[in-house]
Amino acid sequence: MLKVENIYKNYGSVQALNGLSFSCDDGEIFGLLGENGAGKTTTFRIIMGLISANKGTVTLDGNPIDYTKTDSIGFVTEERSLLTKLTVEDQARFYGALKNMSEDEVEKALDYWLERFEILAYKTRKIKELSKGNQQKIQFICAIMNHPKLLILDEPFTGLDPLNVKMLKEAIYDLKKEGCMIIFSSHQMEYIEEFCDKLVILVKGKPILAGRLQEIKKEYGIKQIEIIGDVEKSDFEKIKGIQKIEHIQNQWILHIENQEVVKKVFQAIQKKNIWKFEAKEPTLNEIFIEKVGGAK
Q: Domain range spanning residue 234?
């Protein structure tokens, strides 16, 4: 288990982290969210032992993280951290040596992942000759080729087309099945919703929302109803609790105050011809905007 407990970090007068706590179990994917400058990168650096917190502790399986533990941590940075004049295999050997892997171990892992990502032909090519998407694949391979205990992913799908995103997703799920702990950060909320079991949202270093994703959504309740059928705007206008009515293409979207309004809407149109009636939880994107906007 990764355990981050009551972390504070200052850069001079700037408070980068303000009482951050969370945990991530084996085989769990944890989402770390926030706007640019919220404290995510500082958190990653503290977890990896690159910088120290002013207060608080970080432990991996009950032990403080130092340079004896960092071999078991993989990190895919938002900005590519590759040596572009090296070939793919030389880049892998370099990272493998840093992680105490033998040349045979590096060769075997590299060939496996290059073939899986359909870029085995690029093994002897220089990094600078590859597309941005293929460079991202190489960065991912270098981070996970020693089967890390903990993997930090910061915007891992940058520069990837949908097919390559699918490949990377499958690899992430496989690492999860192997028991790898994964800290996932992205501004694309659909990825967080798809991957993460738990999450925390930071605003200027302070956690403003934390917990299991499903429990957070349940707490927010039903906020929207989508309807397709023989109905008109006038069918909804007199119903109390409807905050906004939209008509997009052939679908009515009702924004409601709470779950109690669902029953009122259903009763009002139950005798109409209805093809779709769906009460929806808020998306993580909507929750993020509400929480971050409210905190400001």
A: 222-280
Cα(187)–Cα(285) distance, integer angstroms:
9
Contacts for 83-86: CB closer than 8 Å, 24+ residues apart: 83/127, 84/126, 84/127, 84/128, 85/126, 85/127, 85/128, 86/126, 86/127
Choose among 176, 183, 109: nearest CA to 151.
Answer: 183
List pLDDT tens digits, range 153-181.
Answer: 998 988 788 999 999 999 999 999 999 99
Direct distance between the N- and C-terminal alpha carbons of the chain, in angstroms, rounded to an integer: 33
Q: Is residue 131 classed exposed, middle or buried when 0-12, 13-18 and 19+ CB atoms within 10 A define those classes?
A: middle
Residue where the block lists tokens 């941005």: 132
CA 42, CA 10: separation in Å to the nearest integer?
10
| C-beta separation of 243 from 256 below 8 A | yes
| 213 and 83 fall within a common domain | yes
Q: What is the total count of domains within the chain? A: 2
Give the pairing type, strands 274-280 and 198-203: unpaired
| Euclidean distance between CA atoms 19 and 6, whole angstroms | 4
Same domain, 247 and 109: no
List, for residues 113-143, the tens digit of each pLDDT value: 999 999 999 999 999 999 988 999 999 999 9
Spatial CA neighbour of 141 closest among 176, 121, 168, 101: 168
Q: What pLDDT, on the 0 to 100 scale, is given for residue 168?
A: 93
